[in-house]
Amino acid sequence: MKVSVKAIILIFSLTSVYSFHISNELIKRKESNSTIPEAPNNSTVPTNSTVVHSQNDAFFKICSFKGGEEVCEEIYEDETNGGSTCTKAIQKECPLDMNYNEDNINVYCSSYFNADKCKKIYSEGFNTLPECNGKNQKYLEILYENNIKKYTHTSIICMKDNDGKVCPYTSYNFLRKYGQVDDSSFWRYMKESCKSKSCMDVIPLMLENEAHRFKNDELQLLTEAINFFKTNECTALTSDTIIKYKYNFSNIIGCLFAIISLYILL
What we know:
Elements: E1 9-11, E2 14-16, E3 19-20, E4 59-66, E5 69-76, H1 85-93, H2 105-111, H3 115-124, H4 137-157, H5 168-177, H6 183-193, H7 197-210, H8 216-228, H9 232-235, H10 239-265
Antiparallel strand pairs: 1-4, 2-3, 4-5
Helix pairs in contact: 5-6, 7-8
């Protein structure tokens, strides 16, 4: 679904959660049996337009410079009927609220961000939602481009360990954001990650998709962490390995107990 949007400036002015527009450049949607009102003087909507949109319509305004002049185009979710039902359905299916913090991240990832639902609509397309059938494909492509980085980041932040808690990388990410992380704390989080394979998988996934967020020295540490995950020191801490050792140990104890019992009986 990816598309390259040829625009120098992409303007989003949010007057509601789902409307991307500048309010003084809108005219009300035409009602039944009414005449089309004239657009405001500073509006980019032509006065002879046959499609008139309301403030409840979701759209992107894309502007570029051509011949030294700014030329803008408004791309609506539904060019004919207006509304924002598809945009709302996407947000409901996969909320991408970037206001989470270390205190509420577990609640957000467990109660609001559904990894399976999000993966479905961002891998198979927004058209998998009934509310998005028949909507403006160009609008959906721009919305995808606008959301995909937020989705990728959130899916990494919300990856969980074997106990259903977010991985240590998430805590590291918050501390790094606040400038409170050093090499010692970094390796502490990486060793904690050894306890869950899914948490170890976070690092290469992050490097593949979000390397641009990190400085060169941080990237070097993260690369070293991937190599560390392959060492015996790390694999010995993996929950699956610990469970396997416990299982084998219990089997040995069971066998010894059986042998001793048999010896006593004889």
